[in-house]
Specification:
Two copies of one chain form a homodimer. Chain A is of the alpha/beta class. Chain A is 43% helix and 21% strand.
Chain lengths: 414, 414
């Protein structure tokens, strides 16, 4: 039996136990793990040091080395994260509705764990504890496959979590790490549909594409964001400038950052110089269509690829459109179904945009940067779904659950 | 460009239009289609006759030929089905919740169509119109891939539906049929994740396995059912006998039929002779473990495979267990996560079974035959999901929808 099948079986067995734990036991488990992380800071830091040194030696980019690095503050933040999850409401066991049918059968729909969740991620070791916390709170077993660059950190964190759970007689297989750092391990993992109920890939577009195209397990696709801001002919210019500035520059490397501007032709001559001034001051390059370039020399010509790009950098594309219909068509054609916003004072245009743009989150007069589990009030986030099945947009604890029908009868037959 | 990509593109374009149709237009569309099916009965029957004759000539089983056959009554039933869907509540556009965040952003979650749905099915031509009706009502475009045995019937039905929609200026691409009857067309279809949002396979275990293992599009897995009835030590014997009889024999070929009996050892000597009498009278073969066989000569020895089988025939497996824990373990090990029932008068055993059996529908003291969209009060059913993501159990109109977040701001930035 391959090692991965054994991990799958262990996960399945653990999930049967975790699904029956009461809220108090789960919260004690999370708090015990938080405490253990703090107590074992030195042990974790030592392992992390190995990863960081190896990464530097292998010429890994400084920004990636920074993601990998654990510090005292970061370990405290990870532990705090588990405490925060413990404090959240537990969705498991709630009966969403219960009705009596004409034949007397009482049918309820009860929230239950998904079972076993596989999470595939890249360099950040904090995901290891975060993902465990959310899965554990919802009664799921988790199987983690982190990036090879963080392998020593992940092994150390998972050991601390497993030992902490064992110390209070909770099955350590609530969290398992695949220590095999070969890429083939991912391919094998995503075919284990006998044991794993859902796969969540968290990382770059390449990883997500591989998983979506090859998994026999249902996948929740997360994350790439080519978010648009459409400045309507009836926009408040100051509001538009503030929102564009915020959505583009407040944080560059995240999926809810704006990557594309769409501007109504009627206001383009007046507005484009204003937005150029604002973005030039922040060193943001603008790649525009012919009309945009003809209005401001600051703009560089955009290629077809620019309209679909998720830059995660100080670059934004710009397209001038003739009408709100053009704007909506352009956005639906190039967006990644993540987040898009209209800036307008017009009632009909606002509602039309909300109705017709096909994205997880559609905004009137606000920054796309709000697409986030905490900003939405979920208290925690496992990722942002850009697919339509099961969960769409920021995913809180509820996205890690399913339901089952519970039916109370007294002898009913058909 | 391949023909299938063209169909995908047409579906995507149609879905943008259908998603914006109001309820009245959709209901007029459904009623116009219902009328057109009745008016074109001769045309459809002529096409169906070709399929039926070819099937008979090719030695297709009589039960399959019967599924394929259309009659005046069956065409009326198909048209009535569309009328019934028109009469159902439209889930699209409902805002499930809307809250104001501390920063003044108002965030709502609105029900919207999935987009483009691919449905792959086998011999029954009635699925062609039924699936269209449910998808159309929920604002989705549908791409149908029926079995080759029904190809002429399907072409005729889809032509009637498309002409009817065109006659009232609704895009005919709301429903498209893949006329290519090669198996490769299925393989190509389930990789079109650029155009299709979800694939629902309806048919035998082989078809479903192929789709689940090869699709790059999210799949809703439907259907196979190895449903269990567990007769607890505290069961009412008469109730147990009536429920077993009903769940096994009321309809043999459907997924919510019982295929497995689990009996507590303490009552086995008394109960097994009773259940043997009841099932022998209906010519049902019983395949039992050693204990079962030692109690009644009527039982044949079961193999390991019997416990996992979905017979869809006059056969049932029987296993004697020592405890309710054994029963639950046996069921969770062999079931298909569809429907399972306990017969008991004991409060704790009933609740324990409800909590611990991992199935879409778990019953106390009722027949598994109730797992059905109509019996659950949904008014219509697109299938029964046996997976945990998105929808679980009988799927009504809501399973064909997703949500999007709509956010109303007045200039909020982070």
């Amino acid at each position: 039996m391959s090692n991965l099948i054994k991990i799958g079986e262990n996960g399945k067995k653990a999930s049967m136990i975790l699904g029956q734990l009461d809220q108090e036991s789960k919260n004690i488990g999370l708090r015990t793990c938080a405490k253990a992380l703090l107590e074992n800071e030195d042990y974790i830091m030592k392992a992390n040091k190995k990863d960081v040194e190896a990464a530097k030696k292998n010429g890994v980019k400084p920004s990636l080395v920074d993601r990998l690095l654990l510090t005292h503050d970061r370990i405290c933040a990870i532990a705090d994260g588990l405490e925060e999850v413990a404090a959240l409401d537990d969705p498991i066991g709630e009966v969403l509705s219960m009705k009596v049918r004409p034949n007397g059968l009482t049918i309820g729909q009860k929230v239950v764990p998904l079972g076993v969740i596989g999470i595939i991620y890249e360099s950040r070791p904090n995901v290891t504890a975060d993902a465990f916390g959310l899965c554990f709170k919802t009664g799921n077993a988790v199987i983690l496959k982190g990036g090879s660059v963080a392998i020593n950190s992940n092994i150390a964190i998972v050991k601390v979590l497993r030992d902490a759970l064992s110390s209070i007689d909770i099955t350590a297989d609530a969290v398992q790490l695949i220590e095999d750092t070969n890429r083939e391990a991912v391919q094998e993992l995503i075919r284990l549909n006998k044991y794993i109920d859902v796969i969540i890939p968290r990382g770059g577009a390449g990883l997500i594409k591989t998983v979506v195209e090859n998994s026999s397990i249902p996948v929740i696709e997360t994350g790439t964001g080519n978010c648009h801001i459409y400045v309507d002919e009836y926009a408040d210019f100051n509001m538009a400038l503030d929102i564009i500035d915020n959505a583009k520059t407040q944080r560059l490397g995240v999926c809810n950052t704006a990557e594309s501007l769409v501007i109504h032709e009627k206001i383009s001559k007046e507005f484009i110089p204003l937005v150029v001034d604002r973005l030039r001051a922040k060193q943001v390059e603008i790649r525009a269509d012919e009309k945009g370039c003809s209005i401001s020399d600051y703009c560089n010509p955009a290629t077809e690829e620019d309209y679909g790009a998720e830059y995660l950098d100080k670059i934004i594309s710009l397209k001038v459109v003739d009408s709100i219909n053009d704007a909506i068509n352009h956005i639906n054609n190039y967006n990644t179904k993540h987040s898009d916003a209209i800036i307008t004072k017009d009632y009909n245009n606002g509602l039309k945009f909300l109705n017709e743009v096909d994205s997880a989150a559609v905004y009137i007069n606000a920054s796309t940067r709000f697409t986030d589990g905490n900003e939405f009030g979920f208290g925690a986030e496992i990722g942002i779904s850009t697919q339509k099945l099961h969960a769409r947009g920021p995913m809180g604890l509820r996205a890690l659950t399913t339901t089952k029908y519970i039916i109370f009868g007294n002898g009913q037959i058909r």
